[in-house]
Amino acid sequence: MNFLIVGCGITGISLARKLAESSHSVTVIDSRDHIGGNCFDYFDANGIDIHKYGTHIFHTDNEDVWRFLSRFTQWYPYQHEVKALVDGQLVPIPFNFNTIEQLFPAQMANRFIGALLDEFAFNKKIPMLQLRESQSKDLRFLAEYVYEKVFLHYTVKQWGVKPDDLDPLVTGRVPVFIGRDNRYFQAKYQGIPLRGYTEMFRRMLEHTNINLELSKPFDRNYLDKFDRCFYTGPIDEFFNYQLGELPYRSLKFNFLTFNRPYFQCNSVVNYPNNYDFTRIGEYKYFLNIRSPSTVVSYEYPEEFVRGENERYYPVINDKNRTLYQDYLKLASREKNVAFLGRLGDYKYYDMDQAVARVLELHV
Ligand code: UDP
User: Which protein residue's CA is at the shortest distance from atom 1 of ligand 1?
Assistant: First the structure.
């Protein structure tokens, strides 16, 4: 068959490869002038892998996804850790026993750790909102502390609402960890593509059955030229926003270069309580590059406004989910168009979930 894929992000690219390998003919279009969507990266003169749309760390427990992508890249075995500035100290996030010991006097820390182990299994993750419901007075104190110092102000900056008014799955992405593992993710496979995401994507698109057209916005008239279309752009845009706009959060990055080997102690430092930015990313850590200068990005969340900035995060709540469901009803009337990806499915996918969605498709 002759397929059109709208959007050359991780979803569109994975699907293009899958269809091409099943001997279909695929055209991928994207309105941007580069491949990779928000996963796009490039190397600066020092060989630092700059993620143009903010830090992207690949992690998955899905063997199929890992094996699929590993056909197109080697991986730098990077294990992501995040530090956050809390009460003047840089502490590990997710909040764990090490964080507790850094922030509280020894006697208090021991009590909190004991109480956590009484209630929860070792090396398990607990959503912060669940910890708040504990029967233990100590744990409720701890939960309020974590809520206030790690989640509340970060979430207000990031989403414009308090954690309680968000889908619990969003803050649940960053749990409290019952143990000493400082890593942000515990997934079996983690890494950064050794030659960058964009190079991995370029190799995925390198197939005689794939035709790529960049700087080419979608036009409904194209549909007539193809047997079937997979649309990975915003589902509301496809339908001309006829039911209203699906809200997104956006980000603004201020990239800075410093003439010194390192700016901070870690690839990502979160600032939940101070400043207007949520975090600072330092890119040389991802592939462990040694160089006399370093590049960082200050990350400022903002509302998505069409034509002014890019979509990053769907704002998942009951109202928006209902609006998305209404768009899905419209979508079901489209005979030859299917929607997928973060924007097509209106879901807060991680990179591996986007790829898994494609691998599970029956096409
Ligand atoms: N979060 C927070 N404080 C932190 C880190 C995360 O409040 O120090 C909350 C915040 O609401 C954020 C969500 O947890 O949007 C998910 O964080 P994650 O790091 O997974 O976001 P991403 O890397 O996808 O932007």
Answer: 151
